[in-house]
Every structure is written in structure tokens, then in C-alpha cells.
Write a structure and sequence with these properties.
The complex is a heterodimer.
Chain A lengths: L1 H22 L2 H11 L3 E7 L9 H12 L3 E7 L2 H13 L6 E3 L6 H6 L29 E2 L2 E2 L12 E5 H6 L11 H14 L4 E3 L3 H13 L11 E2 L4 E2 L4 H15 L12 H9 L3 E6 L3 H8 L6 E4 L12 E3 L7 E2 L6 H10 L3 H9 L8 H4 L5 H13 E3 L7 H12 L7 H9 L6 H25 L24
Parallel strand pairs in A: 1-2, 1-3, 7-10, 12-14
Antiparallel strand pairs in A: 3-13, 4-5, 6-10, 6-11, 8-9
Helix pairs in contact in A: 8-9, 8-17, 16-18, 17-18
Chain B lengths: L2 H55 L17 H8 L1 H33 L6 H13 L2 H11 L6 H8 L13 H29 L3 H9 L4 H29 L3 H6 L11 H10 L8 H29 L5
Helix pairs in contact in B: 1-12, 2-12, 3-7, 3-9, 4-7, 7-9, 9-12, 11-12
The chains are: A alpha/beta, B mainly alpha.
Chain lengths: 483, 321
């Protein structure tokens, strides 16, 4: 009897332990394995398609492992919201990957606020910063209190561009060398394409997740001091309901009314819309710097297309968009146990040969100007030209320590619902009649949230006001002198 | 052997028996608990603990990182109840659930009754055909259906156009009302097969003699269905309606992959609303405390529905089945 009872207890314990071990951190096991065989296993979590299995970044990591056989890198790629959810879950369970490359949802202020990252200064070569051009590092973007946390991954001056199919323009009787430059030309060309080519529409717009970004990208030619977060650096406040934003939404509504936006756009995300454009079901698309690479490697090698500036409301207007040359790429997690090895990987991902091949093999503009001179892809060359002509260096209020604190606090406050994207989508599908009223409410919400963050920062002892975010001299047409 | 001696023997055996039985019972009981242990552990870790934790979190302003520290009392609950988006999601959940219950429960009974007929040839094929959607992954269904219901080049619009039922394609997913219709259609298709199986189980448990008696009395097929089958199936009706209601009330994966709650909150349901606040907030960090409060409010609503059904099951179920 006693024997039976003991065996029962043993079985029960075994079951309990097996369940617990299944739930526990698998990384520990790997680490132990690593110790046994003198191989250190690093975890890299990336939000960039470049690091998807078989892609350029992934292949470069394989090269890295060949060079350092004692380091094994487990690369995980997760896109957009999947990445955001994953990172949050890992951070919550205190299991952050050694190195991670976040989306823009996780700027430095959030990472530092939550103590997810650690400085790189002591771990990287002394001349690390000198690899990058002037302006590549800035407080609040990749530096905090003078300490280096990250570095640029792609060209500093980047933003949105206008992608168009030259063959579709030709087929519709339009000049493929003369793409639409104004809103009216865009509307007319779209109408012509929609009417003349069966099953093809003027524009593919990912209204599910980028309706707001499209509206702000169009508005930026009218209000170049407004960035894609809806913040106006000249006014020092959010300006979602400015007459210029309203005008750009009105233009989108007009395009919609004329039936030139691909009708599947209403529920499409960026990935879906890219597919529609790549399959030549739409002639035009507004998209970012990654699209040349995506068109070539992820959408089956799109042919007969080119890149130019986003059309402006009327002739004589110049298209401008804001960016900062300073940018973020990979971060070293605060909990890594393999600082030295992780630093080697970060160094590898920021070396000149890496960036050189990024331009030639991966069709992605690099942060190193001299490397970008070797581009031999026509579309990428044109994209670089568009950015050179349109992108303006914005002020960086976050460089001010107190303003950085405000941004940190702001990021922890509740976000509005509906957000800007949902309001524009609601207006386009006709469900939100009073979208202008909703824009007003949204703008008030953001500005009140901003003021609350300033108030909280002040109560924490920071000497800060809205002035730290207001740059009256900045007109959005010339680079802001950060000095 | 005298009768007295036999009686003594029997008494002696009986005296011994209870002891043996109790040892056997105890042994059996221990094994029961051993087999239940994994489930109990899973229940404690993955069901009970998250429920208790979400009650705790709901009183905090917490973004899910670290340990909650900023207590806000009932503020999250007040905000949830006042939030028009929550009320909209709740309304959509009720519409979706109502649509599914009203369509699936009676229609699956009719189909089950037909499939139960011994005269039907190929009933196995039909049963398999109806059951197939049940085993398909919801996320895959959502993505495939997105293409089927697409405005331009969508399979459904092409079929309707070819059949001459429509002149211009219908924008199923670009209109809030039609998107909900599409969602209900897919929900019905997905959950139909399992309800047919439930009804079939019910139908096959009904006593045959009652039908034979009715047939002798001259009752036709319809009369037998109306006056015998339906009343006898009431306990099953309550259980199937309950299961369908709870299943539809908690729909998440289909909505997430098919419409993502859009367009413009037209198909937003409470589980998706909770998920969005817990993980997918744009322009800020997630609000785990707030999402927990929304989950509790919704949980209470689901519990009330369960209580109502529980009372109905007690009334009509039990020994009658």
C-alpha cells in the first residue's frame, strides 16, 4: 500500500514538474546548452522584413555566425503589431531578447522609461559614431543623457514617396515620363486609368491602417511644419484639425467619390495594398522607403514602375516632409547576459560592408552617404533623389532633457479612440458624417494629453513648458539647425 | 452444513466486505485525483489565476509592464461603461450573437432531422460536408473569407453577378451593416456543423415507441415532428442555444482576421475591444487595467446570460432528457 502511495505521489510530482518546466523560460535551457558547448546563443527580435528568413539581414547574421562560430544567433522576425505584442509580452515576462529592432511604436523614451535597454558606449569601438554622417545621433532619438543607445539603420532623410506603374500610364494613354504632379493631375490620371483599363484603379490606399498617414502625407505640402504624428513644430501643438489636414481629407473624399481608389482599400492593411499595387490592379501608391526592396524581393520583382514626389495641391507648391537624420536601429536589452557577444552583433549590423551590401543587394538606402553613391537600381536612385529634395530636418525637442521627460510621460497616457486613422477611414466609407467635429475632439484630446504630460513633468521637478516644443522660426522649408 | 453455520459464515464475509470496499474505493479515488491533477493544475494556472489577476488589475492604471502600482479604484469601470466604443462593441456582440442563434439553432435542427431520416441516401457525405467548416482554423477562414467577400474580384460577387442576381458588385466589407451581415454569414457557416451533430445526438436519443404509436394513430411526418420531436427536444434546445450564445458572444479570432472590427467599428465586438486596449493601442502604451475592467464587465454580462440558461436547463433539462 505504502509503495503504491509513494508511486502515486511520484507520478503526481512528475506531472507537476513537467508542466512547470513547460511553462518556464526555454531560453535558460538553451543557455545551459550554450555553456556546455561553449557556444553563446543570442536572441535577435526584428520588426524589419530584412530579417525574415532568407532575406538580406538574415543572411548577414548567418555570415556573422560563420565569422564567430562561438556565437549562435536565433533570429525572429515579427511584423508591425505582431512585433509590438511580442515585445510587450517578452518584456512583461522579463524575457527580452538580447538584441531587438523595434517598430516606431517603441521610441527611445518608452524603452528608457521602462528600463528595457542599456547604453552601448562601453561596448562598441571608440570610433563607432564617426562611421555615420553628422546629425546621425541626437538626444531623445538614439542618445539619452549623452549615452548611446542605438544608431541609424537607413538613410536619415526619409519619408513617403509616390510609386507609379509606367506601363499602366502608357496603356491609359498617359505619358509614363510625366507622372501626376498636382492633386488635380492625380485625379484626372486616376480617372483615365480607371475608365480605360478594366479592373485597374487609380490608387491603392491601405485605409485599414494608413488612411491617416496618407492624409497627413498629402497635407504636409500645405503645412510642412506638421509631421506624421500630427504635431506642428512651429505651433508647438498637435494640429489634426488644421484647415490643411481638412483639405487633404477632402481631396481623399473626392478621389473616393470619383471611384478611383481601389474598392478593396477600405479593409486593406499596408501589406494587402502593396499586393494590389504590385499585381497592377492600381496604378499609384504612396509608400515609404522600404517599398523598392519589398517590390523586388517580396512581391515577385515588380517591373515597369518608378518613384517620384507626392503630388501637391497646385503647381508652384513644393512638397516637403519632416524627418530626423538621427534614427534608431538595434537596441541592447537591459537584461542580456551576453553583452560582449551582443555588441559584436550590433557592430556587425552597423559596419560599412553591411551597409554597402544593404544598398546593392537589398535595395535599401543606407545611413552612409558615400555608400549610397554606389546605387545602380533606377528606382532606388530616384527614391534617394526624392528624399534629397523633399525631406527637411525637423527640430528635435526631445534633445532637451525636460522635454524628453514630457515625451516619456505622454507615452504612458491613454490614447484616443477613434484615432486619426479611424476618423479618416470613417469619413471615407461615409459612416462618420461629422468627421470634422471628430477631428476637433481628437485634436483637443491630444493637446490636453500633451499639457497633462507637461504638468506631470513639472510636478516631478522638471523646468519645462510648451515653449520647449515650439519653434517659431522653423517654417518646414529648410533644415532646422539643431545647434 | 447447518443453516446456522451458513448464516455465521455469511455474516463473517459481510463483516469483511466493507473494509475491502473502502480500500478499493480509496484506491479508485486516488487514481481519479491523479488523473484530474494535470487538469486541476492547468485550471489553476491558466484559468483561475488570470481571472483573479484581471480582477486585481482592473483597479489599477497599468500598461502591462512591471507590477501595477497606480491604483485608480473604480475609475476603469466607470470609463468602460461610459465609453461609446464599448457600448458599440457590446451592441455588435449582441447583434452577432442574436443573428447566429436565430439562424443556426432552428436551421441546424431541420438539417439534423433530414439527416436523421433512415430513407436519406448519402447521409454520411452530408454530415461530413456540414461538419468540415468546424474543423477548419478560424484564422484561415477569416483570411480566405476576406478574399471571398472582396468588393473587387471577390468570389461571392462574381458568382452573384454571373447568376444575374446583382448588376454591380456589393461592397460587403466596406459598409458597416453589410460587413456585419458578412460576419454573421461566416459565423453561421462555421458553427452550423457542430450544432447539427448536437441535434443528431438528441434526435437519436428519442424513444422510438412513441413514434410508432403516433404512426398507428395516423399522425403524418409533420405532425410527428411538431407534436413529438419538438417537445421532446426542448432540453436539447436550451443547451444548444446556450452553447451557441456563449460561443458567439466570445467570438474573437474570426472578427480579428476577417474584418478586424471594421469598417469604422462596424463589426467591433467586445473581445476585440478588450484585445485592442490590452495590446494594440496606437499613440500610447497598452491599458491592461482598463482592458481587465472591460473584460470583467463583459464577463458579468455573459454570466447573467449563463444564469438565465442555467435556470432554463434546470427547468427543462435533467431527467427529461
Amino acid at each position: 500500500m505504502k509503495k503504491n502511495r509513494s508511486s502515486l505521489i511520484l507520478i503526481a510530482l512528475l506531472l507537476f514538474v513537467s508542466i512547470l518546466s513547460a511553462c518556464s523560460n526555454s531560453a535558460k535551457g538553451k543557455e545551459e546548452n550554450g555553456k556546455n558547448s561553449d557556444v553563446v546563443t543570442l536572441k535577435l527580435l526584428s520588426s524589419h522584413g530584412q530579417f525574415n528568413k532568407g532575406n538580406y539581414g538574415y543572411r548577414q547574421v548567418e555570415e556573422f555566425m560563420k565569422k564567430y562560430p562561438n556565437i549562435k544567433v536565433d533570429v525572429t522576425f515579427a511584423q508591425g503589431n505582431n512585433f509590438n505584442d511580442t515585445l510587450l509580452a517578452l518584456a512583461s515576462s522579463n524575457d527580452l531578447p538580447d538584441v531587438f529592432q523595434p517598430t516606431s511604436k517603441y521610441p527611445l523614451n518608452i524603452l528608457v522609461e521602462n528600463d528595457w535597454v542599456q547604453p552601448l558606449d562601453e561596448l562598441l569601438p571608440k570610433d563607432f559614431k564617426s562611421r555615420f554622417p553628422e546629425g546621425s545621433f541626437a538626444e531623445g532619438i538614439n542618445l539619452s543623457e549623452g549615452k548611446l543607445y542605438s544608431f541609424p539603420r537607413i538613410i536619415g532623410k526619409k519619408g513617403q514617396a509616390f510609386y507609379y506603374h509606367t506601363d499602366l500610364l502608357k496603356e491609359a494613354g498617359l505619358d509614363p515620363n510625366n507622372p501626376p504632379q498636382t492633386w488635380d493631375e492625380l485625379l484626372q490620371a486616376s480617372k483615365q486609368i480607371t475608365n480605360k483599363i478594366k479592373g485597374v484603379f487609380g490608387l491603392a490606399i491601405p485605409l485599414d491602417d494608413q488612411a491617416g498617414l496618407t492624409a497627413l502625407s498629402l497635407a504636409s505640402s500645405l503645412q510642412p511644419t506638421l509631421d506624421t504624428t500630427g504635431f506642428d513644430y512651429q505651433k508647438g501643438k498637435y494640429d489634426f484639425n488644421s484647415p490643411n489636414v481638412v483639405k487633404s481629407i477632402d481631396f481623399l473624399l473626392k478621389l473616393n467619390q470619383e471611384g478611383v481608389i481601389h474598392p478593396n482599400s477600405y479593409t486593406q492593411s499596408l501589406t494587402d495594398s502593396q499586393g494590389v499595387w504590385a499585381n497592377k490592379q492600381a496604378a499609384f501608391m504612396i509608400n515609404a522607403h522600404h517599398f523598392v526592396r519589398v517590390s523586388e524581393f517580396e512581391l515577385g520583382g515588380v517591373k515597369d514602375y518608378d518613384v517620384t514626389k507626392i503630388p501637391v495641391p497646385e503647381k508652384g507648391t513644393t512638397y516637403k516632409q519632416l524627418a530626423t537624420s538621427a534614427d534608431f536601429n538595434a537596441y541592447l536589452s537591459s537584461t542580456t547576459k551576453h553583452k560582449k557577444e551582443a555588441a559584436l552583433l550590433i557592430d556587425w549590423l552597423s559596419s560599412e560592408p553591411y551597409f554597402e551590401k544593404q544598398v546593392t543587394d537589398d535595395l535599401l538606402l543606407s545611413p552612409l552617404a558615400k555608400v549610397d553613391q554606389i546605387i545602380d537600381n533606377d528606382q532606388l536612385k530616384n527614391l534617394a533623389k526624392v528624399y534629397e529634395e523633399t525631406v527637411i530636418e525637423r527640430p528635435i525637442p526631445e534633445s532637451n532633457k525636460s522635454a524628453f521627460e514630457v515625451k516619456k510621460i505622454e507615452s504612458t497616457l491613454p490614447a484616443p479612440q477613434p484615432d486619426f486613422n479611424q476618423i479618416v477611414q470613417g469619413a471615407l466609407i461615409g459612416e462618420l458624417k461629422d468627421w470634422k467635429g471628430e477631428l476637433g475632439k481628437l485634436n483637443d484630446f491630444y493637446n490636453q494629453r500633451f499639457e497633462e504630460a507637461i504638468k506631470k513633468a513639472k510636478s516631478n521637478g522638471e523646468d519645462v513648458s510648451k515653449d520647449a516644443f515650439t519653434f517659431p522660426d522653423f517654417d518646414g522649408t529648410r533644415d532646422y539647425d539643431q545647434k | 452444513m447447518s443453516a446456522e453455520t451458513m448464516l455465521d459464515r455469511e455474516q463473517a464475509i459481510l463483516k469483511k466486505m466493507p473494509k475491502k470496499r473502502s480500500t478499493l474505493n480509496r484506491k479508485e479515488h486516488i487514481w481519479c485525483y491523479v488523473f484530474l491533477l494535470p487538469q486541476i493544475i492547468m485550471f489553476l494556472f491558466f484559468t483561475l489565476w488570470p481571472i483573479i489577476a484581471s480582477y486585481y488589475y482592473s483597479f489599477f492604471s497599468w500598461n502591462g509592464i512591471g507590477w501595477p502600482s497606480e491604483m485608480v479604484g473604480m475609475q476603469n469601470f466607470i470609463e468602460v461603461i461610459k465609453d461609446s466604443n464599448f457600448l458599440n462593441a457590446f451592441k455588435n456582440s449582441v447583434i452577432y450573437t442574436f443573428g447566429l442563434v436565430v439562424i443556426v439553432v432552428p436551421s441546424s435542427l431541420v438539417v439534423a432531422a433530414i439527416l436523421n431520416s433512415p430513407k436519406l441516401k448519402g447521409s454520411v457525405f452530408f454530415r461530413t460536408a456540414f461538419f468540415l467548416p468546424v474543423i477548419l482554423t478560424m484564422a484561415i477562414i477569416g483570411i480566405v473569407m476576406k478574399n471571398i467577400f472582396a468588393f473587387q474580384g471577390g468570389f461571392l460577387n462574381s458568382i452573384l453577378e454571373k447568376m444575374g442576381l446583382i448588376d454591380t458588385p456589393i461592397n460587403w466589407l466596406g459598409n458597416t451593416s453589410l460587413a456585419m451581415v458578412a460576419l454573421v454569414i461566416v459565423g453561421v457557416w462555421k458553427g452550423f456543423g457542430i450544432k447539427v451533430i448536437y441535434w443528431l445526438a438528441g434526435l437519436q436519443s428519442l424513444p422510438k415507441d412513441v413514434y410508432e404509436a403516433a404512426q398507428i394513430d395516423g399522425a403524418n411526418l409533420f405532425q410527428r415532428f411538431l407534436h413529438i420531436t419538438l417537445p421532446l427536444l426542448v432540453p436539447f434546445l436550451v443547451v444548444i442555444t446556450f452553447l451557441q450564445t456563449v460561443w458567439a458572444f466570445n467570438v474573437f479570432d474570426l472578427v480579428k482576421t476577417f474584418t478586424n472590427g471594421g469598417p469604422f467599428f462596424g463589426t467591433d465586438v467586445v473581445p476585440l475591444y478588450i484585445y485592442r486596449h490590452a495590446f494594440e493601442v496606437s499613440g500610447g502604451l497598452p491599458r491592461m487595467g482598463y482592458a481587465s475592467a472591460a473584460g470583467i464587465v463583459y464577463g458579468i454580462a455573459t454570466m447573467l446570460i449563463s444564469i438565465v440558461f442555467g435556470l432554463l436547463i434546470r427547468k427543462y433539462g435533467g431527467n427529461k432528457v
